[in-house]
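Recap quiz, item 2
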Amino acid sequence: MELALKIGVAIILVMMIWRLYPAAREQMRNGPKGTGKEWQSVALVLLAVAAFVVFLIFSVRG
Amino acid sequence: MNQSISAPRSQEQILSSNKVLKNTYLLLSATLFFSAVMAAVSIFLQVSPMFYLGSVIGAMVLGMFVLPRTANSASGIGVIFLITGLLGFGLGAILQMYLALPKGPQIVGTALAGTGIIFLGLSGYALTTRKNFNFMGGFLFAGMIALAVAIIANLFLAMPALSMAISAAMILVMSGFILWDTSRIARGEETNYIMATYGIYLSIFNIFISLLNLLGIMSED
């Protein structure tokens, strides 16, 4: 039963990839490109999220 | 060309995007509440953890094939409640497992609070700065495909290290999607509040599940 469910999830994920791939390819080829400054600001935000997750891990470990 | 620079929007466009934003947050609140109720029902009924996989399959099928066709009609609201209810019911089965751990209630509470803070912080950042995050599209879609491949592999390999790496990457990619989705709504590029709610709901759900996984593994000595 568990294996059947895992295979079901795998099939659904393959279908998701199949649907996402054209959009991803279009975005990569013709989508807007960010400047170095824009990527830097996003990287800082994501770094803050990562630091917050590390803080949560330490708070649970006590 | 700097993609952040765009033509000034008319009063009508601003009002329209504010309406989509308001409807999105209203529907998001309602669907999150409904998911929480369904999760509580699932915990009360002590549903098998395997039900989680079944609910993910059902929700993904509805999200990929039914919701895009109904999102422009009133039936789309029913479909999104069905999807979020299913995911909430499946989540309850997973929460039971975590609550049984020695630090279970602390892990679940921390994951819930952490998800809320991450979502509010990122949405607040996107809404106050009004920056255009469209340039992240390619990175986010490619990241999602890479994560889906890794998840398929780990369904059968069941490697804890890979599971942790997937969870960590998932939190970052979903955080990016919250910025991307919120900025698209605020800038009037997403006009369907049902699809907008679905995107943000999935980001919140995935961040919560990934945080639960990370905290569950890392809390053990």
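Residues 1-5 of chain B have pLDDT under 50 and may be disordered.
Chain B touches chain A through 52 residues (CB under 8 Å).
End of item.
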